[in-house]
Amino acid sequence: MSDFELPNTRYALSGDVNIAFQVMGGGPIDIILVPGIVSHVEFLHEFPGYTGFLRRLATFARVVTFDKRGQGLSDGISGASSLEQRVDDVRAIMDDIGSQRAVLLGFSEGSPMSAFFAAVNPERVSKLILFGGFAKAFLTEEAISQRTKIWGTGAVMTRAFASLSTNPDAIKLLAKFERLSASPGTAKAYMLLNRQIDVTSILPNVRVPTLVLHRRTDALVPIERGRELAALIPVAKFIEYPEGDHVPFTGDVETIVGDIQEFVTGERESSASGLERVLATVMFTDIVDSTRSAAEMGDQQWRRLLDNHDRIAKQAVEKHRGNLIKTTGDGVLATFDGPGRAVRCALAFETMGKQIGLPLRAGLHTGEIELRGRDVGGVAVHAAARVMAHCAPGEVLVSRVVTDLVAGAGLKFAERGSHELKGLPGRWDLFAASL
Q: What are the C-alpha distances in Å from 18 to residues 53, 63, 254, 320?
């Protein structure tokens, strides 16, 4: 999977219930992320930082996320699932992907379930990591009633994402997440069931190496709950972070992932370790309606046309002193040290494509990229791909930062409005380039 692609959702059968899950990375260690009160394996990628958090874990492990039964993309059920059923669901996913032993990484409500799994199935758990967790539920019936009434407005999840509480766009995103992950009735059923959770008696039986992580400013689960959890597990190491949200993929993510990596692998490696970062303009292109065109032309003719496409792409990029990173089947990824040359290359490539009967489109953004051997990564790469997704046929779209950097270069830009780019924060002003 490349840096700008998201993982596919798959299903594991647990009894007669289909459990939705995703897999990222191919490392020698398996990490199963056990979600909190609600989840949605696909929509969570809309939150800034979430995909990057998983990708960072995936640099040293095979990372699995899933939706509990009755939530997100998993099969619906009546009521809420017990701890025992949730354990069965994790086991079903592990069996489906051929994982004999895994690290369990439990978030919030997922912590007691993960601890329970580790205590009763130590042969399937190599290590246990608990973030923002607790041993015994602490919500009152009155609190559950109040949260049920406001479910779907974003007000409940705002406590988990406290740093986003003043951002209206973020609150809308949280509201949608609540509605997609569970109905008010389902959310209430889980909260009522969770109110009965108490794994304090089994925690002394957890014998696998355990790491408990908690932020002092957690607005959803007080730090005292994390301290209690760690104190009850004989083999637990406890780390407190001075500030941050209830969720682990906001704030100082690098420190958290570094602690997890060191605990899991015995080594600590910065995300920038071994990677060179440079400022570059990233260009993504693709052929408009390539699937339909391939079907109409037939394999042989389409293959010849793609060969011509790759040839003129190489010519255009080399002429404008760029670096052709790779072809993507029906497009290219290239980088340039000058944004003006990048825009001119995109326009020239679009014209050359039209001459051989290929309608092209291109998206460009300037930002810091990571050099990974012959490949590149980083937010700027994602941004260029998302900009291209908004292109009309024959159009070259650029972000505002590109227009700011090429002022006076003789290029023209027409406003194309402000847009949300999937997986990236805020709204982005886009512009169509021309000579």
A: 26, 19, 34, 51
- What's residue 270's pLDDT? 53
Half-sphere exposure of 187 (CA within 13 A, CB side): 23
- Is it true that 9-265 and 276-434 share their CATH fold? no
Structure tokens given for 179:
């509605």
**Containing H/E element for 319?**
helix 299-319
Q: How many CB atoms lie within 10 A of CB 157?
A: 25
Give 10-residue mean pLDDT values along the chain (435 residues).
70 95 91 93 89 90 94 83 82 94 95 92 95 89 91 91 86 92 89 84 93 95 94 94 92 91 84 65 89 75 86 93 87 91 94 89 91 81 92 93 86 93 86 93
CATH class of 9-265: alpha beta
Residue 375 has a CB neighbour count (10 Å cut-off) of 13
**Rounded to an integer, what distance in angstroms lies between the CA atom of residue 242 and that of residue 253?**
13
pLDDT at 197: 82
Q: Which fold has domain 276-434?
A: Alpha-Beta Plaits (3.30.70)
Q: Crossing angle for the helix pair 50-57 and 253-265, nearest 10 degrees? A: 20
Q: Give the model confidence (pLDDT) of 311-320 as tens digits.
A: 999 999 999 9
Closest CA to 271 of 103, 6, 59: 59
Beta-carbon-side half-sphere exposure of residue 241 (alpha carbons within 13 Å): 24
Domain-wise residue ranges, the chain: 9-265, 276-434
Residue 157 contacts by C-beta under 8 Å, 6 or more apart in sequence?
174, 175, 177, 178
Distance (Å, whole) CA 19 – CA 96: 11
Angle between helix axes 184-194 and 141-150 (nearest 10 degrees) is: 160
| Residue linked to tokens 């489906």 | 96
Element (H, E) at 375: strand 375-377
202 backbone dihedrals φ, ψ, rounded to 5°? -100, -15
**Whether 398 contacts 431, CB under 8 Å:** yes
Q: At 289, list the tokens.
A: 């309606």
The whole-model pTM stands at: 0.66
Question: Is residue 281 within 8 Å of 366, Cβ to Cβ?
Answer: yes
User: Side chain identity at 358, as an amino acid letter?
Assistant: L
Residues 302 and 289 sit within 8 Å (Cβ to Cβ) = no
